[in-house]
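sorry for the late reply, my laptop died twice this morning and i had to redo everyting from scratch. anyway the thing you sent over, i finally got around to it. pasting the sequence first so we're on the same page, its 144 residues, then the predicted structure underneath. double check i copied it right bc i was rushing
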Amino acid sequence: MLAEPPNAAKPVSASAEAEGFVLEMEVDGRDLAAMRQRVRAALAELDQDLVQDVELVCTELAANACDHAAGPHHLVLRHGTRDGLPSVLVEVRDATPDRFPQVGVSTLGPHRGHGLKMVQSLAAAWGVHGDTTTKTVWAVVTTP
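ok and here's the structure:
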């Protein structure tokens, strides 16, 4: 896990039409299906394998924020490239800057705690950064 997104993960235009910002929305933990629908719509022109991976990463990071951190919770997607491949930077921001996610650990029961393992396997990189009032968990997902 890295403290800040690496320079290579920052959005770089794959084409003039797909530069940078794609979607920003508030996340409601009671309706993650609506979030997934908006993610699919925002990324409709990308490779569908990439979109499915991004959708899963968004769901896991948003669910973690809603389950373990104070709101409001915000999702930001940015399209770019990483190592020459199309990529999407996923950022989920919450209002609990002093509580960082832990891979494989959950306070919600023995059958929980696997979401960040999936994020690790799907993301080219992921990490956490924050300030005095917010924390952002981010992941870069590239074409499989």
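The first helix runs from residue 32 to 42.
thats about all i looked at so far, will dig more tmrw
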